[in-house]
């Protein structure tokens, strides 16, 4: 793929993002004022996701999803909302958005390969959506099955953006993380502007902070791959990712895509908390609608998020109600937040729940192996340092608050004991500032993962891995945002950032940006030798597996309802590469994933045995391919290394034969 084509794809993708953003911006102005321009970025993507999702249900072209945005844009053009004076000062929002987008695009340009971890899975979902944008999307690893066993909306949104922008899936894959980072950053920047007089950019650092374990491994002289891996596996048998790791790791998995929606939701609840009583009735309806859209999207993007953010919504609604009663303000009761947001968030995606065919949580268990002190501090120590510094004066005035942590420590749960003390301090202040509420919630989330876990089918050794993995990332977003707000207010009290400091601040920002865009260049290879300096995530195959590269490139040109047999040899290996790179359904791919999603009823291992029979038993081969509605069969080096090939040649038509790869169509 030529550089010119890749540049064109970048322009087309950014044009679509800008088009949908600018169209809905005027509709948010009366509610959000100066913040409307920025938050219309994530709001427009969620709205596009919702509209395109219903296009998929109705079976109409995804381009239809752009019609409402075009109509809104035309309406506001007639209303002369896009005049020059309305755009004054808005360049700062665009600057934040596009700087973050281009930074992450640079990272992906240098490390673009769809090659390891969950990348095969994420591209497979993306390509499946682009090939056939229906609801529910087809499962490329389980022929005849659909992705109604998984939360797929993030991949759906990105796939539909690729459809309407005309970007190929192997390039669109590398646009996902830039889009996520830019939208998360713009919401965090809006939260900073809402809560800080200066230093509004500080909350954006939530996406760039590393944990102490990362620094420890750097200082130990470990290689970058070791630093990356070990810093997120510090707590035994769990995963504790943090946003910048996820971005550099380069895997646009569901929990990573969800970060932009989390940041957006945090802004919305903080804005509602501060401004609810001052808004007009129309403004409250707009917030109600956006909160419903954001909360309603969570189960479809990354279901674990809604388990936390739904209670968080009710917590903030209760606090708004309390403030309303305290100030004796009539006519502003937040009943919409209590009643309509939960109801609307379910209603707007109700067909998803009716189609859902996934296993749920099997219950709640007690953690019997709490994290040791050193590991706990290596993961959460930075935030504890910030919060204890913030609460130092509280502890001097009320030393008895230390007692809140003692029962946990005596019970062997040292981590929750350390967390309980700053939570008690912040609550006893009774000032109920947004950053204090977010900090308390973040700390409580982490405390929960140390005491309890949600039961799933990960087995005895990794019994709390998913709970820590998914909830700690939510806790990170809460604690990161609040800690940066605390830091910003400390700086404001010391008069940093005053008018006489403007020049120094400008120089500082310039240095930060220079370092930011230099980091991807000077960092060690994060692509494990697969090659870079392209946005084509499949390009690495041309060097590592040239036969497959040419064959897959050929397959990607085919149209129609194609299904294809390929070798199966386990998860996280160079198997399932045909279905992953094309989005075409195969009989079985990544079997452990399918077993996790579908359980025993999936007959995963029966399918595995049938694939072997297809390649090795000519008497059964053709009938088994027809059983699974296969249209093609792939024979490359991987298939030859895995099976003793004995195909029924008389029933197959050779349609491709190059570089030791053959592709057959069923007669």
From TrEMBL:
Domain of life: Archaea
Protein's UniProt keywords contain Membrane: yes
Residue intervals passing through the bilayer: 6-28, 60-78, 90-110, 149-177, 198-219, 256-276, 306-322, 334-353, 373-389, 401-431, 437-455, 467-487, 507-528
Keyword entries, A-Z: Membrane, Transmembrane, Transmembrane helix
Pfam families with a match to the protein in the record: DUF2298
InterPro entries: DUF2298
Protein name: YYY membrane protein
Species per Swiss-Prot/TrEMBL record: Methanochimaera problematica
């Amino acid at each position: 793929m030529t550089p010119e084509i890749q540049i064109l794809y970048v322009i087309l993708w950014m044009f679509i993002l800008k088009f949908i953003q600018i169209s809905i911006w005027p509709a948010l102005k009366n509610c959000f004022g100066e913040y409307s321009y920025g938050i219309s970025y994530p709001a427009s993507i969620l709205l596009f996701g919702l509209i395109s999702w219903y296009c998929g249900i109705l079976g109409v072209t995804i381009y239809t999803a752009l019609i409402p945005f075009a109509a809104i844009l035309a309406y506001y053009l007639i209303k002369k909302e896009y005049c020059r004076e309305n755009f004054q000062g808005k360049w700062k929002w665009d600057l934040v958005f596009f700087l973050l987008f281009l930074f992450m695009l640079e990272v992906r340009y240098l490390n673009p390969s769809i090659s390891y971890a969950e990348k095969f899975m994420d591209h497979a979902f993306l390509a499946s959506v682009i090939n056939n944008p229906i609801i529910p999307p087809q499962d490329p690893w389980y022929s005849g099955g659909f992705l109604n066993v998984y939360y797929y909306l993030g991949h759906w949104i990105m796939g539909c953006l690729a459809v309407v922008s005309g970007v190929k899936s192997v390039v669109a894959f590398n646009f996902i993380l830039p889009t996520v980072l830019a939208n998360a950053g713009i919401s965090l920047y809006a939260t900073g502007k809402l809560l800080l007089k200066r230093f509004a950019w500080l909350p954006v650092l939530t996406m760039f902070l590393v944990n102490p374990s990362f620094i420890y491994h750097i200082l130990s002289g470990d290689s970058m791959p070791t630093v990356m891996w070990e810093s997120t596996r510090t707590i035994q048998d769990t995963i504790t990712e943090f946003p910048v790791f996820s971005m550099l790791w380069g895997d646009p998995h569901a929990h990573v895509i969800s970060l932009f929606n989390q940041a957006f939701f945090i802004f919305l609840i903080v804005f509602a908390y501060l401004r609810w009583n001052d808004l007009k009735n129309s403004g409250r309806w707009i917030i109600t609608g956006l909160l419903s859209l954001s909360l309603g999207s969570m189960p479809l993007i990354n279901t674990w998020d809604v388990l936390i953010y739904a209670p968080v919504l009710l917590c903030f609604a209760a606090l708004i109600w309390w403030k309303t009663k305290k100030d004796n303000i009539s006519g502003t009761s937040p009943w919409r937040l209590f009643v309509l947001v939960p109801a609307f968030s379910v209603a707007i995606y109700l067909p998803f729940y009716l189609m859902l065919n996934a296993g749920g949580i099997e219950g709640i268990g007690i953690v019997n192996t709490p994290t040791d002190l050193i590991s706990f501090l290596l993961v959460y120590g930075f935030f504890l340092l910030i919060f204890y510094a913030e609460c130092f004066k509280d502890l001097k005035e009320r030393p008895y608050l230390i007692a809140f942590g003692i029962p946990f420590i005596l019970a062997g749960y040292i981590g929750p004991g350390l967390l309980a003390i700053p939570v008690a301090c912040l609550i006893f202040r009774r000032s109920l500032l947004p950053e204090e509420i977010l900090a308390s919630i973040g700390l409580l989330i982490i405390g929960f993962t140390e005491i309890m876990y949600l039961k799933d089918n990960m087995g005895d050794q990794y019994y709390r891995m998913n709970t820590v993995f998914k909830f700690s990332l939510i806790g990170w977003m809460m604690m990161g945002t609040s800690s940066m707000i605390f830091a910003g207010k400390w700086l404001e009290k010391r008069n940093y950032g005053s008018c006489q400091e403007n020049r120094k601040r400008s120089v500082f920002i310039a240095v930060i940006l220079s370092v930011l865009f230099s980091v991807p260049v000077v960092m060690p290879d994060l692509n494990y030798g697969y090659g870079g300096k392209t946005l084509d995530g499949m390009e690495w195959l041309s060097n590592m597996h040239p036969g497959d590269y040419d064959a897959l490139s050929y397959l990607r040109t085919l149209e129609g309802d194609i299904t294809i047999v390929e070798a199966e040899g386990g998860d996280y290996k160079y198997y399932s590469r045909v279905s992953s790179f094309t989005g075409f359904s195969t009989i079985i791919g990544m079997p452990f994933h399918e077993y996790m999603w579908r359980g025993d009823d999936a007959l995963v291992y029966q399918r595995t045995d049938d694939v072997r029979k297809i390649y090795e038993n000519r008497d059964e081969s053709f009938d088994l391919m027809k059983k699974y509605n296969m249209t093609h069969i792939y024979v490359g080096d991987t298939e030859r290394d895995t099976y003793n090939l004995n195909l029924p040649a008389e029933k197959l038509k050779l349609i491709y034969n190059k570089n030791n790869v053959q592709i057959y169509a069923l007669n």
